[in-house]
Amino acid sequence: MKSYPSTTSAQISGRISIASFPTQSSQMLALRLILIIYLTSTVISYAPRALNRASFVREGVKGLVGVSAASVVGLVGRPQAVIASEEVDRVTTRMGGLLEKYQDSRGGWIINSPSGWNKFDGEPGAYDVKWQDLVTPNENIKVTSTPVTGEISSIGKLGSISDLGPKLAAKRNAKLISSSDRLTDGIQFYTFEFEVEATKAHQFLQLSVSKGKIWSLDANAVGAERWEKRKAIYENVLASFMPKLS
């Protein structure tokens, strides 16, 4: 798998004017921009096809400048966030054979993936591993990782779940349906559910930080009926993911 250089706070803050964010510290701004740049680059499927990856990321960062959390919340609303207060176990159910255990020895992570789905390895800049339904390709699950600096030790370092959710929804032109926070084996996970009304796409996005990387796990379907059919499977897939082997 091709490796990518770590993104540093200095590189990010050097590109964006800190004066545009008078209420945030320079350090926290830099850390949050790392997440925004990374996550914007994982949602190309929601952007017009004519817009290439580089320009989509660039426009996503430009759109963040001058946008306050309050104004974003005004557009998409603020659903109730569920905050983790104690550790919960990793989910290991196979759902009667619908899921199967997958272990990535090179990346050092485990997951229960859908049985019988096509598996694709490593498209540089897009994902580490992807599973795709045989009949309906837009029903898929992707695991993506990107290096970050050592000061980002958990996803909480990049902001609260109630702060990040609306911003990520705005980048997708999506509605934030729900968000939840859990702690499993010492790792903090943020999970968001989005709906893109223009395309009828639904998505779970789960974020965590481990071993110097941000780990993104997204599960997608198009149409309310298909989403309801897949939702329980996706929830168990997300809850089974662990970005370490022990």
Automatic annotation (TrEMBL):
Record-level GO cellular component terms: extrinsic component of membrane; photosystem II
Residues annotated as domain PsbP C-terminal: 99-241
Superkingdom as given in the UniProt entry: Eukaryota
Transmembrane segment boundaries: 29-48
UniProt keywords, alphabetically: Membrane, Transmembrane, Transmembrane helix
Protein's GO biological process: photosynthesis
Pfam short name (any one): PsbP
Single GO molecular function: calcium ion binding
Keyword Transmembrane carried by entry: yes
NCBIfam families assigned to the protein according to its UniProt record, in alphabetical order: PSII_PsbP
UniProt xrefs under PANTHER family: PSBP DOMAIN-CONTAINING PROTEIN 7, CHLOROPLASTIC, PTHR31407
This protein's name: PsbP C-terminal domain-containing protein
Taxonomic source organism: Triparma laevis f. inornata
